[in-house]
Amino acid sequence: MDAIARIFDRTVAEVIVREELEEKLRSGRRLRLKLGLDPSKPNLHIGHAIVLRKLRQFQELGHQVVLIVGDWTAQIGDPSGRDETRTMLSAEEVRRNAETYMQQFSIVVDRARTEVRWQSEWFGKFTLADVFNLASRFTLAQMMAHETFRQRWEQGRALTMMELMYPLLQAYDSVAIQADVEFGGTDQKFNILAGRELQASLGLPPQDVFLVPLLPGTDGRKMSKSFGNTIDLTDSPDQMYGKAMSISDDMLDQYLTLVSEIPDEELAEIRRALAEGTVNPRDVKMRLARDIVRQFHGAEAARKAEEEFIRIFQRRELPSQIPIYELPNWSPIGIVDLLRNAGLASSASAARRLIEQGGVRIDDEKVEDIGLVVEPKEGMVIRVGKRKFVQLVRPKQREC
Prior knowledge:
alpha/beta; 3 domains; 44% helix
């Protein structure tokens, strides 16, 4: 399989129009590849890495990646897949988030070969006449074809004119940078097609649409920071490995397909073995977790993360390194306060919930009493869930 054929591999959901894009790729012309940066969400996870790896493939063929910072649309909020409006961001928040995003973007994509553009370059010069001209090129019927818009309209929920402008503004980005191809998840299909339509209406060559599947979170829901179900690009090797091992067996094939770099032939063998029951899904999951860590931290880090996982979760030993918590005053303390103060629970109510669910252990003894008063001992280990540990130590003597 040649490099161009590999572009259309198992991590692609849909390409519009594939034949046209393949012809452009084989023509030798350098294409401009558009990806929008949503600065409302600065943290990237392995779901984002699917499209980023695809951009890197195009870069290696000599094509130009153009990363657009949505500093104007961030003030509106992308309605794709959302059923309510989103709070506007300040210019400072946008810049701060964009910087974090670009640092993580560079983990996968070559930053030196990426052109970064800010929407304010063109929208900062927009006049009211430009806005009317842009709006006149789309109909209300076209906007109502957007699933989220239609659902909110039919349910009698708020749908602002400002939100209806989002796909138009994203579409104009494609005109401004003369995009040949726009990339995104399947939830962005409507917006990316709008760019294709706007280019054609202005007499420009319409961009091709390159969509990748959406990866579910580790708990099966949409991958989202708010659900706490992401595997982030900035996670440590141990965190990445442990989170990958937490996915359910029925999600294993999806993760193997979309985020592993296991060759197709080996993947086919793994699928066959899983279907026939001749391999333990746990062992396949370990293969997946090792591969994910290797991609972002290297083979040695992946090996050590696996050793640590086996130590903690299979042998039920303590981690080789446990965060230290210096207990102030070294005196008896209620378990709820201890969990909160040590950073093992976000609040008192969260601490109580963890205890009620049986997720708290002291020196491997389950805590069942919310009112427990802990008598501290040097080296005592507090554990919450499967991955959070702290070891109690006396406070250091401070010099006056």
